[in-house]
Amino acid sequence: MAGYLPRETTSLVGRKNELGHLRNALAAHRLITLSGIGGVGKTRVALRAAGRAAPERPDGAWWADLSPLPDERLLLPVVCDAVGLSDHTTRSQADALCEWLSDKEGLLVLDSCEHLVDACRSLVGDLLTAAPGLRVLATSRQALGVGGEYVVEIEPLPVEGDHAALALFTERAGKAVPGLSLSDPRAAGAAAGICRQLEGIPLALELAVAQLRDSSVEEVAERLSHRFEALVGTERTGTPRHRTLRTAIGWSHELCEPLERLLWARLSVFRGPFDADSARAVCSGGPLAPQDVGRVLDGLAEKSVVGWDGTRYRMLDTVREYGRIWVAELGEGEELAQRHAEHCLSLARAADAGWRSAEQGEWYRRVADVHIDICTAMDRLLVCDPARALELIGLVGFYWSCCGHLHELRGYLERALVLHPSPGPARTRAQWVLGVNALLQGEHGLAHELGLRCDEEARQGGDPEEVLAAGYLLGLSHLMAGRPLAAHTVAVRLPGPADMTRDSASRRKCRLVEVFALTGLGMLTEAHGLATELRAACAETGDWWTRSYTEYQLALVSLFQDRPGDAAAHARAMLMGKRHIGDAFGIALGLDVLAAALAAQGDGERAALVYGTSQAYWRTVGHPQRGTPELGPVREECERSARSAIGDEAYDAAFLRGASVRTAPGLARALDGQLPLS
Fold first, then answer.
1. Which residues pair with 136 in a beta bridge?
2. Does one domain contain both 570 and 604?
């Protein structure tokens, strides 16, 4: 969510001077780059500095982690996601991002730019030109080279006297081995020696601390000293500190068991966070049996090779780079990349099945968590197996549409459809997803054309689910074009069981189209009855996506039937569901209806405030207010009633307060504090 930073998972030791320097630099410069070798702590310093600066910026701070990105193609989507932009237009993402940030006064943190320096240089230059109130804080192993850039070199921690390196080592050692004391002169001397040997590089020190679980500090110091002595005169490449870090990582690698080294190498195929099941599916094989992966993974976590946040594992980019070197040495790169792609495809198939189960919400989260890895798999399959690439994008396309990844989705869909022109279920499914995408981007004619094509192909193929999916797209395209009777005709001709709890997910979507159509036709009693029945079926089956839009329709019907209290309750229920997946389009619709309900209850100030917040969400999707035609009069009446209740001056002031706040707090306030702000 825009305006929020990652949670700090470890303490920040030292760096008082650097943070003071950064505070002053952020006040004086629009672009600050924290430079330094890998593992020196640039990310941690940036996170703490951003956390301190955020309250001073009207729009807070945004965090974009670029380390998982394989190349520049995902740079814009990641930055858009970080700042809360879910653009639903067909314009370029760069233009949309510049316009979105043009009036913002926030701090954008771009973490780990070193492998994308050229692309980051171009993007940052454009953003600083377009958004005069924007500040950018970048971390990179080299400067970006943008005019006006202020570079702050992050040095290793001091290793002399009562130094910060020893303080870090002591604190981390106490957490790694509870009860461990370094107060003994020999132990303290050994610890200080380790800090000097590793030149105060935080990552190197963390890797050394991990060895204390099964060795004394004196033993660790002695082994490290021997390793450096053996390397004197043999390591000529890179800067001395780079060689020190590489030596520390290599030393940690040598101390791993053979299976741990093998898993370390294979885990480097993951670009983002991963769980044990994914590691098992992709990385087992040969001497590493599936049943051993969990134990070996725990060993790597104990050695600080991977981090664990309570649900997933992560690997620092510096450590991942070392693993990739060994993958190349083992000659497993191609096989591993293929297994990774196959795993992502299997995960997408499971997610598609999960959509039809009570675990729908959980699968939304899982697909979102592996977004970068799915993109990596897609890139590979487009080159080596376009048929499977088409299947993969068809399977995740609806999730991506709901979560706002429309530009990425459109690009992948168009490439896959060109590369795999052969007819079949996968192509029909991909065309269906493209139709949904086109609807959300405002291309109603293209969506209708694709709906007709999908309907024809689905009926020829004889798959009932594909027929229902095509009917949903066709019906929706009629609704958005103001043809509710045509939408109703499409929806009611589609087969389905008498008991809605036995409906498939596709059939429930078609019933939803029928509810929309009945509302558009003014058949409010029928719409309310069908929507109530559909909502109950969704609650029983766990289909909260369809339920959220059913709540939206119940809110509209309640408004039209002069029951504003019921309308407000249904609108809030809809918003609770939409917020769960970050569906900015759905949230904007729900806020419009909630504002109208509040205005109808005579609460003009809160109506104006919520209506302003809805405008903030409409801005995130890049469109003016959209939806089916019957929403136009609802919005007009909302503003008229609210202005009449409190007067133009009070209305404008409340509206501007709602429109100017960050969207997450605005939504929480609209829901009367029923949701946390983060």
1. 31, 108
2. yes
Nearest to 427 by CA among 463, 402, 399, 401: 463
* Cα 404 versus chain centre, distance: 10
Look at the alpha carbons of 314, 316, 317, 318 in this order and tell me if their dihedral is positive or negative: negative
Residue 502 belongs to some domain of the structure? no
Residue 320 DSSP SS3: helix
Which sign, positive or negative, has the C-alpha torsion 429, 430, 434, 437?
A: positive
Higher-confidence position of 504 and 564: 564
Spatial distance between the Cα atoms of 368 and 374, rounded to a whole number of angstroms: 10
* Two tokens, residue 132: 């005069």
Whether the pLDDT of residue 225 is over 60: the answer is yes
Handedness of CA 322, 328, 330, 332 (dihedral sign): positive
Model confidence over 251-271: pLDDT tens digits?
889 889 999 999 999 999 999
462 contacts: CB under 8 Å, gap ≥ 6:
none
For the chain, how many structural domains are there in total? 4
Residue 47 inside a domain? The answer is yes
- Environment class of 234 (CB within 10 Å of its CB; exposed 0-12, middle 13-18, buried 19+): exposed
100 and 214 housed in the same domain? no
Compute the C-alpha angle 516/520/521, nearest 5°: 120
Residue 585 in any domain: the answer is: yes
Name 513's bridge partners.
none
CA of residue 303 relative to chain centroid, distance:
28
Asked if the model's pLDDT at residue 237 lies above 60, the reply is no
Say if residues 547 and 577 touch (Cβ distance below 8 Å). Answer: yes
Buried b (16+ CB within 10 A) or exposed e, 518-548: bbbeebbeebbebbeebbebbeebbbbbbbb
Residues in contact with 235: Cβ distance below 8 Å, sequence separation at least 6, in sequence order: 243, 246, 247
| φ, ψ of residue 463 in degrees (nearest 5) | -90, 115
Q: What's the start-to-end Cα distance of the chain, in Å? A: 8
The residue segments making up the domain with residue 275 are: 260-331
Where does residue 108 fall: left (phi above 0), alpha (psi -120 to 50 degrees), or beta otherwise?
beta
Same domain flag for 213 and 245: yes
The answer as to whether 429 is a domain residue is: no
Q: pTM score, two decimals?
A: 0.89
Mean pLDDT is lowest, of 7-21, 121-135, 152-166, 491-505, for 491-505
